[in-house]
Amino acid sequence: MILDKIEKLLDEVQNLNAHNAEEIEALRLKYLSKKGEITTLMADFRNVPAEQKKEVGMRINELKQTAIERINALKEQFETTEGDGPAMDLTRSPYPIRLGTRHPLTIVTNEIIDIFSRMGFVLADGPEVEDDLHVFTKMNFAADHPARDMQDTFFVEQSQTGDVTKNMVLRSHTSSVQARFMENSQPPIRIIAPGRVYRNEAITARAHCFFHQVEGLYVDKNVSFTDLKQVLLSFAREMFGTDTKIRLRPSYFPFTEPSAEMDISCHICGGKGCGFCKHTGWVEILGCGMVDPNVLEQCGIDSKVYSGYAFGMGVERITNLKYQVSDLRMFSENDTRFLKEFEAAN
Q: 275-286: per-residue pLDDT in tens?
């Protein structure tokens, strides 16, 4: 009788079929689980007469092996069929897409570029690894100027001949872009040069060994300091609000004469004085001045015919003022919690 049952089950397992993984698992449980049909047969084996044990045992093993092979074949067939289908379920709801945001320095740089572009300035660019000739010499820096010292500038390669103009450095300002542009162009010139610059500074909440600048240059006939003041006033009001006031304080730069530092009225206290502006009512944002005639001559422009003005600002400083960021190290730490605060500023 047990042989008849084995033959019946053998016929069943040879013709097993399923349409999905759930049905395959149900067949496995029916025939191969601890409470399945084949396990029950093996439990009944002890009641088989001794003279039939050999034949019955062989048939049970054949049944078990056939069941295993058939169920595995169904699994392989189902997996192959599933792999031929689409890589994703097109009927399901779409995954939420997390959008990123522009970096705050990029936001402010683009805003500065937009303001000056509407005044007629065009973009100019140059290398970050630059020669001393364009970074310092053509900007009227003396050969023994401290900016050429190893403690102030990152040197990439130093001249073996002692000629400082052939030293290679990481540019310390984007004025080198102005020098290259003036070498290859004749006035009128009206450019802005944004980019990253490097200086050997101790990294603190107010200083870093690299930062970003936007410098501007205008060279033409009869350019005056008044023109410079009006451009900078227009910029300050566009960037910080129409009530913004500016003041120019005398200063010194090798590449401009006369030179000035520009302050804006503190937009936090409205010029009344607060902790942010150190109770002065003013905050410094950039340096500027009339282009030194030596710079024009070094770059192949006749200083007796043409004059010009230049200005330069740190993007981090403008961003600090605009968004009241207390520590400029946050701009380079890639902390997404900080960066997400600027999603609405895009």
A: 767 888 898 999
